[in-house]
Amino acid sequence: MWFKLSCLRRLWPALLLSPLAFLLAISPDCNRELFLILHEAGRVAPGAFWRLLSVLGDWPTVLALLLALSWRRPDKLPALLAGCGMGVFLAIVLKAGFAEPRPPLVLPPGSVQLLDDLPGNGSFPSGHAMASATLASFLYYSGMLRRGVVLTTVVILVMLSRLAIGVHWPLDVAVGALLGWAAMYAACVWAWPRGWPEELSARVQMALLAPLAGQLLWLLYKSGSHEEYALRLALCALVLAAGCWRWRRLRQV
């Protein structure tokens, strides 16, 4: 019994998402109808609410937040790099391989109220759902936040935001969240579980500030058209400033 309960505690996201993903995969009509229902239900909240929620599934923003979290748990830096690398790789390869059209390109005109710019890549799987699940899994399996209900709620809200905005099918977000969880769970279990030497981890963390600075410059160059742009910019700038301050303190020690 102990073994079974232990497995349930570790693998409950897969037990929750796998049946849903399987059902939607074998029933395209169900996938389409569920999208229309949830997309219509999403109109009870303003578009700004869903766009701001989606920031928690934006890969550049999630990577910046994960870097900041690794300062608290430097022993989990290898897992962070492996899990994120695996997640980004899967998102790129699967989107290019399936090239699934997004809802506004398939459904009759007027069926979808698009709340944001339509991405030009494939719909399957959802990169936002994957990134948010990766962030939640890192928090949970690194022991920084053991409130699974809270983390699950946040991931579900990000998944719903992609449906409300009108850019993803339910199957996209279910599989995306499943892959994001699996990538980070596997990394936390098998990718150098005891971490790297302290000096190496500190050097890698400092080196990661360079791409973060590049991301900030890119955000400043490519101004956004909605309110979530300011949130992305603020989070990136805050993490970069904190990282530079931390690097300066380490050099003075």
TrEMBL record:
Keywords: Membrane, Transmembrane, Transmembrane helix. Signal peptide: none annotated. The keyword Iron does not apply. InterPro entries: PAP2/HPO, PAP2/HPO_sf. The keyword Transmembrane applies. It holds the Pfam family PAP2. The chain crosses the membrane at residues 48-67, 79-98, 118-141, 148-167, 173-192, 204-223, 229-247. Residues 77-188 form the Phosphatidic acid phosphatase type 2/haloperoxidase domain. This is Phosphatase PAP2 family protein. The lineage of its organism: Bacteria, Pseudomonadati, Pseudomonadota, Betaproteobacteria, Neisseriales.
